[in-house]
Amino acid sequence: MSDNTEPTSPTSFKGSDLPPLEKDEPPKVLIVGAGLAGLYLGTFLEQAGIPYEIFERVAEIKPLANVFSSMEQISVYEELLKVSKPCLSGTFYTGDMKVIAQLETKDEVYDNTGYGRLLFARPELYDILIKRIPPHKLHMSKKMLSFQQNREGVMLRFSDNTTVHGDVLVGADGAHSGVRQHLYKTLQAQGLLPKADTRNMHKGYISFVGTTIPLDPAKYPGLARPDSVNSYHIGDSSMPYSWVTFTVPGNKICWNVVIQVKLADIEEEQFRNSDWSREENMKMLDKIRDFKTCYGPLGDIIDATPKDRISKVYFEDMLFETWHHGRTVLIGDAAHKLLPSTGQGAVNAMIDAVVLANCLYDVKPTSYANIKAALDDFREQRFDYIKEQYTHSHTNAMIQFGHTWSERIFRYIILNWLPKSIMFKQIVKDSAYRPQANFLPQAPKRGTAPVILQKPSKRIQDEKDIAKKSTASPVAV
């Protein structure tokens, strides 16, 4: 949604020191949410010299080639390699451990993309990113209640009765974004919210996720392999579950269990409740203890996982039309919730952060008009690509998690009859989109496949033109 209207919040904030209508300093960015999107954005704003603060409501808190280039720019990629294992193969099994299909990552994929697939525990990436944020810029236990915006700035109000002011507000607070809810409520009252954005997100799956403590390699031989042992298990129509295990450094096993809700015996009111007690969660996990894995019963792996490190996640999907209005912009799951069947939700959240950082870097001087133009530019660069990935996420979810008769047939055809060359071409095509920060030295091009050229920085080009004219100006004698 392109924003051609003015924010209709109050025209002034009483008792506030408002920024001027135009200034030479870069815009101050307020980021709500310290997930992957918020931390990644903060990391690049730090490099760009753009002032920012991150606010997170709680007390504590498998990328692809698309983000590895930008990770190289800030030396995150090298750290990620240390906590990852390469994914060279993957096996699909039935619930009874009969092989459905065996997939291998060909050398041609690495040769063409320049990067291999990595598997790691997501908390490891959080730890890498959060260390790059200066402590005084990361504020925990700050729950946003509301915000106001106008031509002069934006003001955030928190549950502890404090406020903060800035030039740009970024909603990076996830699928149930408080920033989006407050923004949409305001737009709907003004008749500015598209009908498509009033729909509820579709919830098709529930997932339980965990990572074990270090295990004995003698009991679990696959742990000693330098590459990740990656297994997908899919139940039949009477068993609407899928479960995945893969090994990571430190002799640990990451696992998740996915329940296809429309086929499962789950009370609707229970499914809607996002705050199930740990006891309720364990009751559901008790039902799957006897599921077979390459390492024996799944229950043994669950028992080796600290209970406070088992998370319950909804697999929801929704592509919102409205990503920004006034000085406020949404990124990551707040703007587009993809089914996380191939890790594209996290990948695209981080790509959002890189592209938005580029757009904010081009805001000079800082003015309301320039900020609006930057947020328009951000959505224009990202929306069509996200729309394509949204469709892909549904297809991949059917392959990995589908249990209906048609989904099982579709999976068998894709994994066993589809020529591997077609799958290979799709991987290469998907990896061609690799946005980097325009304001940092560019990471070298990896692989032989072409890479999509990204939009150059207008600010950098203008500065080059000015410098060129300055050196070329004739000197009067």
Write structural notes for this entry:
The protein has 477 residues and is of the alpha+beta class. The protein has a domain of 272 residues: FAD/NAD(P)-binding domain, CATH 3.50.50.60. Helices cover 35% and strands 21% of the residues. The protein has 14 helices and 23 strands. A hairpin with a 4-residue loop joins strand 9 and strand 10. The longest helix has 34 residues. The protein is globular, with a radius of gyration of 24 Å.
By CATH's scheme, which homologous superfamily of one domain applies? FAD/NAD(P)-binding domain
Instruction: Describe the main β-sheet briefly.
Output: 8 strands, mixed
β-strand percent reads 15-25%
Number of helices: 14
Cα distance spanning the termini: 56 Å
Q: If you compute it from the alpha carbons, what radius of gyration comes out, rounded to the nearest whole angstrom? A: 24 Å
Mean pLDDT value: 85
Using the coordinates above, name the CATH class of one domain. Alpha Beta
Number of strands: 23
Helix and strand content put the structural class at alpha+beta
Q: Uncertain runs with pLDDT below 50, 5 residues or more?
A: 8-16, 265-276
InterPro entries: FAD-bd, FAD/NAD-bd_sf, FAD_mOase_fung
GO molecular function: FAD binding; monooxygenase activity
Family: Belongs to the paxM FAD-dependent monooxygenase family.
Keywords: FAD, Flavoprotein, Oxidoreductase
Structure summarized in a few sentences:
The chain is 35% helix and 21% strand. With 477 residues, it is of the alpha+beta class.
